[in-house]
Request: fold
Amino acid sequence: MIKLSQRAWNNVIIVSMLVLIMLFNFSSSFLNDGGDEAPSLLTLVPFNMVITTMAFEQYKVERIGQGWRTTSGKYARGNSNEELESLVEHWINAEISLFDQNPNWPSPSSAVQLWFAGQALPIEYQFMQLDDKTLVKIDQQTYQLISPSYQMLTLSE
Reply:
């Protein structure tokens, strides 16, 4: 074995740790096989955002404590808390993918506004049916709704 002083062994350990750090840093792309690419499927609701209010055309779904309620300008809807929780879960788990084409959006498309905890302004989602696809427009960007269907993202009348 090589006889080195305490100071020399400390330097050997420091250099070997630096080499290991560089090895881990440069091997991330090798081990991930290009995993840093943008995912093809996104979620409709941004990750880790908490929905507080959902405003549809005819009614509004609001969070109250740990539950949900529906309100409307003309009448109050009689939906159970389980139905409303299911609706919110569908929104949170909904998957979309980027839509390459830029279709011409007619003015009478269906719109939903979502308010999130910690944000003053809502995010508006515009939905449009194009052939057999449901398109979603969020901040001037067009996406295709993959799952679930648009009917699962609204309350049945």
Q: What stands out?
A: The first helix runs from residue 6 to 32.
